[in-house]
Amino acid sequence: MQIILPKFTMGVGDRFAREGNAQLAALIQARKEGIEVSPVWNKSFREHSIIHTQPPSVREAADKAVQDMKWSLPYFVDADHINLKTVDGFIASSDFFTLDVASVIGTPADPAAVKAFVAKYSSFCGDLPVEGLASPLVITRELLESVARKYLFAVQEAGRIYRHIERQKGVGCFVTEVSMDETMTPQTPHELLVILAAIAGEGIPAQTIAPRFTGRFNKGVDYVGDVAQFAREFEADVAVIRFACCRFQLPSNLKLSVHSGSDKFKIYGPIRTVLQKTGAGLHLKTAGTTWLEEVIGLAEAGGDGLAIAKDVYTAALGRFDELCGPYAEVINIDRKALPSTQQVATWDSKTFVSALRHDQTVPGYNPNLRQLLHVGYKVAAEMGARYLDALETHRGSVARNVETNLYERHIKPLFPPGASVPLPVTNNK
Q: Which pLDDT value is given to residue 182?
């Protein structure tokens, strides 16, 4: 059976595999309001390594939540940001694979392959009208060669990863995403078109692609950049994808994936406008902010829950360099704006929650503290039973925050109602 990704999908990454029911409760609430979004549980190799978990645990948690909540629509388990070195542990339990090739962008492809690629697509040179764009894309042989030199090897690497998975999973038995977002410079619509041509040439049936957009997508906090420019780029990319699907025989449901998309509230309005205008789909890959809602729920509960939240912050502050190092490119913390451990020790529940919850209308909100705690989940993992038992003791507070955050702050502002969802498919385990 061919697995087809629904129109609207959302990553529901869950560091400690405890919030599946609350996440599905948010999606069920959205369905009641006519908003159809399918969940994609995602957890990267890096996160598994830090917490000392294994990929099959994500499938187990997802399946249990689906059973508990009687979820009957499609759902997926994403092998997040994998490469040839890390993919094997994910193959049996995943049916969605994010092929991360950003690290090899710029690696030279074989000159003969570049030459052959330019020759193959030279018929596109000139002024190329693309429906949805105000002016034609100007494609030259120099552009084709330049983009091929920068991206062709990366796409070939994606092809190698895809075929490695296909040999074990079978044709059509998983969803493929190509990720190129973790690089310094955004791809232009011209570059995206050429990249999509290369993806088609590699025979990768990509259903989502994650380009690098303009601006900063720091973990757990709002978008930083020119919102109007982002909106123009996003709409242009949607137009290019639609064109490429027709011209290069890529899957007709190919859509954009916005990585670290959780909490990017400034751009939700522009994205929603484009989705309504064009009928395009979207995959929003969240940045693990469910974990922050757990901490908020514990702090809100008070008592030992608040004590745990304070202890996590205290330890994270003392291990700043260790915890922030792996995320240096996707966080921006002003250390001088972080409260001292002595200050935090005096906080009550309301003060701690106000500092951490992503509500920029609250005077006490501190995006620096939020980012530090975002990368501080290793501390909670090291607490072991103390942290996990507290999640169950304060289940009501934690679940309420997880559900409310996902539904009210993410799904409602971003996804328009009325999109149809295909019939349920059999998810491969």
A: 77
